[in-house]
Amino acid sequence: MVGVLALTMLEYDYFWIASALYVSFVAGTLVGSVVQDRLLSQGLLTMGKPTRVTNRIRALRFAAGEMTQAELADRVGVTRQTVIAIEQGRYSPSLEMAFQIARAFGVPLDDVFQYPEVS
Questions:
Q1: What CATH topology corresponds to 46-119?
Q2: In this structure, how many other beta carbons lie within 10 angstroms of the beta carbon of residue 20?
Q3: What is the C-alpha separation between 60 and 57, in angstroms, rounded?
Q4: I want to staple 85 with a disulfide (CB 3.0 to 4.6 A). Which of 4, 18, 76, 91 is the partner?
Q5: Are the CB atoms for 91 and 57 separated by under 8 Å?
Q6: What would the pLDDT profile of 78-95 be if each residue is shown by its tens digit?
Q7: Has residue 72 got a pLDDT over 70?
Q8: Is pTM beyond 0.90 here?
Q9: Measuring CA to CA, how many Å separate 111 from each of 61, 63, 106?
């Protein structure tokens, strides 16, 4: 029975992904970002090649009264899963989102994100 349930859930996920991708194609980028967040959170999507950009989001959240990932996500207009992926370095935000994150903390962009010097 467990095998049948697992197969059913797997089939459901693939159906959901296919349906969501079609809807995102028809509806545009807002739905596309929801699909992206869902795929990121399930580990079914990785965001390109690894990045050398680092961030201090976790430290800034705690300095801001232990702000939760969900609170930051609400302020920026993304899901908690997106904040997690950015915080862990698995996803590099767009330039616009990076500015929104910095603004949420009230600090300059380079206080949040760093790029190592090229030697």
A1: 434 Repressor (Amino-terminal Domain) (1.10.260)
A2: 18
A3: 5
A4: 91
A5: no
A6: 999 999 999 999 999 999
A7: yes
A8: no
A9: 13, 13, 10
pLDDT class for 77, splitting at 50, 70, 90? very high
Domain boundaries, the chain: 1-45, 46-119
d(CA 119, CA 98): 25
> DSSP E strands: which ranges in the chain?
54-55, 113-114
- Helices 69-76 and 95-105 cross at an angle (nearest 10°) of 120
Alpha-carbon span 88 to 98, nearest angstrom: 15
Residues 95-105 have pLDDT tens digits of 999 999 999 99
For residue 83, the model assigns a pLDDT of 96
What whole-number distance in Å separates Cα of residue 3 and Cα of residue 106?
50
Cα-to-chain-centroid distance, residue 112: 16
Q: Is the pLDDT of residue 27 over 50?
A: no
